[in-house]
Request: fold
Amino acid sequence: MRLNSDKIFEYICVSFGLGLLILVLLIFYELIANSFLVFAKFGINFLTTAYWEPVKGIYGASPFIYGTFFTATIALAIAYPVSIGIAVFLSELSPRKASQFFSSLIDLIAAIPSVIIGLWGLFILAPIIRDDVQPILKHLSFIPFFQGETQGLSYLNAILVLIFMIIPIMTSIFTEALRNVPRDLKEAMYALGATRYEVIRHVSIPTTRTALLAGIVLAYGRALGETLAVTMVIGNKPNITISLLNPGYTLAAVIANEFLEATDALYVSALIALGLILFSISLTVNLIGAILLKRLSR
Reply:
């Protein structure tokens, strides 16, 4: 009976795994089938064209691809060291009760709905960027990142919103990983005369590198696919610019904004093609992350 129960459990688990694989393949197939029309008309130019004018029947995905990677990559680059610092403080330096309190607070922040964060960016961050930050950045206008003027809805606002959304995710993963570092390794380093900084640098961080990479991949995937909050604050204008003060657009935002307005088959096909691109990007990021995790585990 025990053997039969084990076999049944094994079959159930395998069927769930195969079912998930089949579901992903079906989604991929539907996206390809429904985006065929726009690729048949524009070909590879759909990915490289910088113009998006549905009224004229011109569709190009490059501004949205650029905006997606631009906002997510900068947000991740800023959020990563901040998350590492918070995690080290909570796991190594903070008193136990304070660490538990702030860890719970971070988990609560991670659970805030994206629409609430979007409203915060729209009504709080946007006026601050327009009235307080922009006058300061005028003195740095010789730097390409800070050229131009903004009304508050811009790449900068979207990046700040994404930073606020992904820091709790990475911090929770990093903190838990650092807390699980074997105590014997730390005590051995202390016995050799190492300082707390040296223990963190040479023991805690290297030991948890697999978990750190997992947190990065998860946060980057969240930043790439975030829809509602970014849609509310980025300005929704297809721009390819390096200036953080200019409005922009992302793949998820344009799909959310324009899908209900799509009236003809080519327009719908173009939006579904954007969904296919976003799906492919997310899949690729997670696949690369899985490969790197496997190598690090070895």
DSSP finds twelve helices and no strands in the chain. The two ends are 37 Å apart (CA to CA). The domain at 2-297 is CATH 1.10.3720.10 (MetI-like fold). The chain has one domain: 2-297.
